[in-house]
Design a protein that fits this description.
This protein is α+β, with helices and mostly antiparallel strands. The protein has one domain: Glutaredoxin. The protein contains five helices and nine strands, in the order αβββββαβαβαββα. 31% of the residues are buried.
């Protein structure tokens, strides 16, 4: 993935849009669809696929270090991972930071924010698969049930919204 100048402009625009919608949250009103599989690298370079979490409830958090609403959502996601890990819930943080952002910086960020779930590096294919031609707004969280179906989506940060979705799935 090669991010040049246009990507920086897009990321800046995403940041501005994120600020405009700080605290706003939307949910998908669509039917359940199969979550597209992906293969992404974690911060140590290990390949991670969505399919390796088959049978788990997976929260896919598309986020970036420079995004204020993303930063605000991290403590809640850390708490949810602690609280629901034993019930088969897995959170995967998918960083949309530019390729210029070093893994060492993301690892330091992960430690500073006490992130207790894997951080993966995005690629263009995965962005296209999950967002299509739609504008990418972050944070965006896709909730995938044990059958691998996307059953909910949250765009923006709204405290308690993700846990409400989890409770529906786990009941």
């Amino acid at each position: 993935m090669d991010f040049k100048y246009p990507a920086k402009v897009i990321l800046l625009l995403l940041f501005i849009v994120s600020l405009l919608f700080l605290g706003c949250e939307t949910k998908a009103d669509t039917k359940e669809v199969k979550a597209p599989d992906f293969t992404l690298e974690d911060l140590s370079g290990k390949k991670v696929t969505l399919s390796q979490y088959s049978g788990s409830v997976v929260i896919l958090d598309f986020w970036a270090t420079w995004c204020p609403p993303c930063r605000m959502s991290i403590p809640e996601l850390v708490k949810l991972q602690e609280q629901y890990r034993d019930k088969g819930v897995v959170i995967l943080g998918i960083s949309v930071d530019s390729a210029e952002t070093k893994n060492a910086y993301l690892s330091s960020f992960k430690e500073k924010f006490k992130i207790n779930y894997p951080i993966l590096r995005i690629d263009e294919k995965t962005i296209g698969t999950y967002f299509g031609n739609s504008d990418v707004s972050i944070p965006t969280l896709f909730i995938v049930n044990r059958a691998g179906m996307v059953v909910d989506m949250h765009s923006g940060y709204s405290p308690g919204a993700v846990e409400k979705s989890l409770k529906k799935i786990l009941q």
